[in-house]
Amino acid sequence: MAVSWTPHRFSGGVLALDVANTVVLRGDPKRRFDRFEDAAELARFAAAASLLRREELGGRTLVVEDAPATLPVVLRMREAADLLFRRAVLSGSMDASHLAELLAACAAGLADLHDDLGSLDRPFGDAVAPLRLEAALAISAITLLEPQRMARTRICGHCGWLFLDLSRNRSRVWCDMAVCGNRRKARRHYLRQKEVQHG
Ligand SMILES: [Zn+2]
To answer: pLDDT band at 117, cuts 50/70/90?
Structure first.
């Protein structure tokens, strides 16, 4: 069944973490699933990200030119980013081998791209031209390596997704308060009720 790419699925705050979160329930081998299982989802994700990540992308539209060829490049970056940033949240530092793998994966994402990137006001390059999803993902992941940004990376207390906490007091606990915050609250309420009933 086709994935509905709702705003909740873009709770990562940046493209690289939204992609990392396309594996749902990553820590639960029995229930985990992959929203990119079908390569056709890449183009649909790219279209949604073009709108929902417009600010990060500087208005560039994301495209997928060859989905079957793009998928392994995206998945390699996704897994490398998840490994590196998840550990960085937990331990406060990067594992050198994780960094090496992420950079190699990002290099593959940028291969054969003839584009001007990295100006201060437009890190993703010229807003007018479309940009390949795998190249945008590489830029997003590399940008996230900046220590100030990495220090704001979090793991959702409910679903385990990675997200960038851009709140002023850096106190966000949930990837999405409306979804994970409320589910956790409802669960606490349920457990309290049970305790009351069981005396
Ligand atoms: Zn969550």
So the answer is: confident
Looking at residue 118, its pLDDT comes to 83
Report the separation in Å between the CA atom of 136 and the middle of ligand 1, taken as the mean of its atom positions.
24
CA of 19 to the centre of ligand 1 (A): 14
Q: How far is the CA of 180 from the centre of ligand 1 (A)?
A: 5
Task: Please state, for a pLDDT cut of 70, what percent of the chain lies above it.
Answer: 95
Q: What pTM, to 2 d.p., does this model score?
A: 0.91
Q: At what angle do helices 41-52 and 133-143 cross, to 10 degrees?
A: 50
SS3 content of the chain, % helix, strand, coil (to 5): 50, 5, 40
Strands (E), 12-144: 23-24, 33-34, 62-63, 131-132
Give pLDDT, residue 134.
Answer: 98
Read off the tokens for 122. 């437009």
**How many angstroms separate the alpha carbon of residue 1 from the centre of ligand 1?**
22
Strand pairing category for 162-164 and 153-155: antiparallel
CA of 155 to the centre of ligand 1 (A): 8
Instruction: Please give the distance, rounded to the nearest whole angstrom, from the Cα atom of residue 117 to the centre of ligand 1.
Output: 32
Examine the pLDDT at 183 and tell me if it is beyond 70.
Answer: yes
Which residue is it, tokens 């031209």?
129
Task: Judge whether residue 199 has pLDDT over 60.
Answer: no
Non-local CB neighbours of 24 within 8 Å, separated by 6+ positions: 32, 33, 34, 35, 159
